[in-house]
Amino acid sequence: MNESELETLVALVASVKPKGVLEFGVNTGRTSKAILRHVPGIQCYQGIDVLPGYVTERLVQRKEVPEDPGHLARGDSRFHLVLSAQGSLDLTAADLQRCDAAFIDGDHGRRAVEHDSRLARQLVRPGGIIIWHDYHDLGNVDVREVLHEQAAAGANIQHVKGTWLAFERVAG
């Protein structure tokens, strides 16, 4: 994620004044750390990732599986890391806390994007926001295709011009 995207992401998260945030695909924890540092009022930040050795659906992401997930945010007492063999694919809404903002940047294969989107919609409170990364037309991930299908089915997903971010405000 480039610097302007990170700033845009922080602003989108801050726009809902979240007490709880959920991040799918924490990787090193760089994004988590930035959001925790720059968005006031966060009480709980849940980060989800996979155990080392996980094989992503899309080849382009295979080098992105972290060896030490979330290490950059680990020092913040509000940060809680959820690790499992298949990351979010092993989880249901009962395994996580409700939140006001969700950032989806995990496995970008169709199955995971659909699962993470469904899970986020179950967990984000009315008035909250869901944000996806890697919304682009390079053809090496499934994010854009899945989001277009969801928009065609009625989801109000917006692209942030000049970025690889898309978002949906949860009706309140």
What is the fold's blueprint, element by element?
Blueprint: H1 3-14, E1 20-24, H2 30-38, E2 44-50, E3 79-84, E4 99-104, H3 110-123, E5 124-133, H4 143-152, E6 157-159, E7 165-169
Parallel strand pairs: 1-2, 1-4, 2-3, 4-5
Antiparallel strand pairs: 5-7, 6-7
What does this structure look like?
With 172 residues, this protein is an alpha/beta fold. Helices cover 26% and strands 24% of the residues. The protein has 4 helices and 7 strands; from the N terminus they run H-E-H-E-E-E-H-E-H-E-E. Strands 3-2-1-4-5-7-6 form a 7-stranded mixed β-sheet, sandwiched between helices. Strand 1, helix 2 and strand 2 (44-50) form a beta-alpha-beta unit. The longest helix has 14 residues, at 110-123. It is globular, with a radius of gyration of 15 Å. The mean pLDDT is 97.
Search tags:
172 residues; alpha/beta; globular
Count of helical regions = 4
Element order: H for helix, E for strand: HEHEEEHEHEE
**Radius of gyration, CA atoms, in whole angstroms:** 15 Å
What is the mean pLDDT? 97
Lateral arrangement of strands in the main beta sheet: 3-2-1-4-5-7-6
Q: How is the main sheet built?
A: 7 strands, mixed
Low-pLDDT stretches are: none
Counting helices, strands and paired strands, the structural category is alpha/beta
Shape: globular
- Determine the fraction of residues in helical runs and give it as a percent range: 25-40%
Please indicate the percent range of residues in DSSP E strands (runs of 2 or more).
15-25%
* Straight-line N-to-C gap: 30 Å
DSSP summary, beta strand count: 7
